[in-house]
Please model this.
Amino acid sequence: MMLYLILLPMLISMTLTAFLKDKLVRSRLIAVSMTSLSLLISSVFFYVYFSKDLIENFSWFNIETYTFQISFIANNLHLLMAVVVSFISLLILIFSVFYMRREKQEKYYFEMSLFIFAMLGLVVSNSFILFYIFWELMSISSYLLIGFWYEKEAASKAAKKALILTKVGDVSLLTAIIILFANTGTLSISATLSGLSSIPQVYLTVSAALFIIAALSKSAQFPFYVWLPDAMEAPTTVSALLHSATMVASGAFLLIMIAPLMYVSGTMVYLVLISLITIFISSLLALESVDTKRILAYSTIDSLAFMFLAVATLNPDGALFYLIMHAVFKSLLFLLAGELIILFGTRNIFKLRGLEIGKPIFYVPAFIGLASLAGIPPFLGFFAHATLSYNFSISIELIFMVATFLTSLFSFRLFFTVYHKNGTEKIREDKFAIIPIATLSILSTVGGASLFFFNSIIPIAYSFDLFLVLDSIIALLGLFAAYYFYSNRDFPYAKLDKKLKSIFRGVTYDDVLASTGTAITKFSGLVDRFEGALGEAFDSVGSLSFSLSYISRELQSGDLSNYIVIFIAGAILVMILMLVGV
Amino acid sequence: MIPYEYIFYLTSILFVIAVFGMLMRKNLINFVISIEIVINAALINFAAGSYYFGYLNGVSYALLILVIAVFEAAVAIALIIFYHKITDNLEMSALKEYRG
Model:
């Protein structure tokens, strides 16, 4: 029972890499080996504590009679997440050796270690306060990593944007935790979830709504999604980690973890609404984007909306399965995008098209990853859809089919625009790039079968029914549509893109923000008069103290003998007071 | 043997003279001398107290004060010398413009 051991390797890695700034080879060796150690430890724990539900407490500090505890939990859900996080992180760190070789990277491995540390801490913590601390640590480290190339203005702006937008969620998470603590008197997550019946309904609803806001902002869902595409200014390895196993997954993980609270709160119908809005916005934006990484970012928003939809339809385990599968194929896609950036130096899909990337080593993994994303049968996404859609009602199923079509369309738009079978480009492979990509490709191809024994880890419901058949047919339709629109060089795909752009660029997020801003300005005009009166009151206080200061500043004349007179007079006064005996 | 009250009268008189000097003299050198007299008045008090009451504490305090007074005088005189070099002036009232 030493669950903190899961966190220890990353802590060591953080400390060492922080001091080994300029010793590049050593710090990447440390980061990679410590992450593998982390993977080893969490796998061993997963094996040893399989199907046990253990909680480990250490007392931390006392306030009056309440003892704050550092509390870790070991059950299938949390340890499985720890294994997934450390596995994906390990592959991405190996890829970093290839991706970051030409960059100055004093802080890179330190910040990555901090990021992984925060996520591992988040998945094994059983105390809301500890959870909140790791949640914030993740915010900070993602801020550092998004702004890694801080000399670029876009990067530093994107980092600020991410920090501020996720801060909304941080505050609402803290508020929710405080509300729950005030009602239950405990910060333990497991105790809170088992004692839900003692909390008044209104507090349940409010705290669940606040948790949802926190998850939405962290996972870049509808009102907050704008930070994620901008965060593409980060190094691609960071994006891969941020999109697959850590940052955005933590929002979905929060909702999966506190699912019992969600279901008694009566807020699920709103979550369904938000996820549907997010699915459509993100897939349409992905269709008009011309940047590989931005398309992948929108696809992440899309996939996370699928998870939220599953949570909202009382199927958190389906959401968890989708989260894990998504981590695998999305990190694969990002690593591929990173490889293209390094080798060809561009992210624009039309420029990449001009380069005619034709080697199977590029287009086979890309096809696997994008087919997984779209939900084409033998790959991961298909199995994930099978469990994701288990609880969907008929209307949601119909909407989901449209979403599948759009997802498939933008995925294969990316594929058919960038990759060509008859390419001529000669490219040198690097083993640090090949190993992670090959591993993830194989997993994306055969890993879907894990659905059949996933049931023994976490009870999960899935069905291969008519809906799923239709869904995969629709995904294939999306593939063919994308082939028709985007594959042929002579076909005026640019025209279609322009048309799409004119439709969806019409109302941009900035416009909505601006009109909201105008409304707020008008409202604040009313408040303005009251504020003016208040301002005058404050002004008069200010001018009063200003005129008083004219008198008091005379005391500081700078004349030494004046000071001595005052000093001695004061001393005599004190003596007299002592003699009188006051 | 001198009664110890007399010593205390002496030091009180010294103290009053020194304070009078501090207040009335405008020359910086005089000012430093006055401060020295104040400190020495206190020092004599300690030494006398130690002698009459038979404790060594007073003497040790007196030694401490002696050392501090030396340092203090050295610093003060150094400052005054530089002040004089810069402004060619030793009037205390001229320090006013520095708004200390």
